[in-house]
Predict the structure.
Amino acid sequence: PSHDDIKTIVEQKARELFMVCDVEEKGFVSKRDMQRLVDELPLMPDQLEEVFDSLDDDKNGYLTLEEFTEGFGGFLGLNPAP
Amino acid sequence: DPGKPGSANEGVLANFFNSLLSKKSVNSPSP
């Protein structure tokens, strides 16, 4: 598969996972949304906060799909284009 | 410095994404 194919697949998957977090379909994930996942994921509240802070690049308290996708790409070992 | 803010370790991030992927696959059974 080409680089673009991989990018498309990663974006699709990231969007699916983003929607698991953004249950209200607001278009962003807040810390409150993140803490809601404590019942569904095997992570502690402080770990979820750590993940949120790590993904929230501009530290504005809102996690956008773009930031989420970038973090997901990093998790997969894909470096974002310069 | 483990107390440094905004420095989530990769293990926690990996755990988060892996858990989300598992949850997603459980919620969306393959046809």
Remarks:
- Chain B has a mean pLDDT of 75.
- Chain B touches chain A at residues 5-9, 12-17, 19-21, 23-24, 27 (CB under 8 Å).
- The helical segments of chain B are 10-27.
- The first helix of chain B runs from residue 10 to 27.
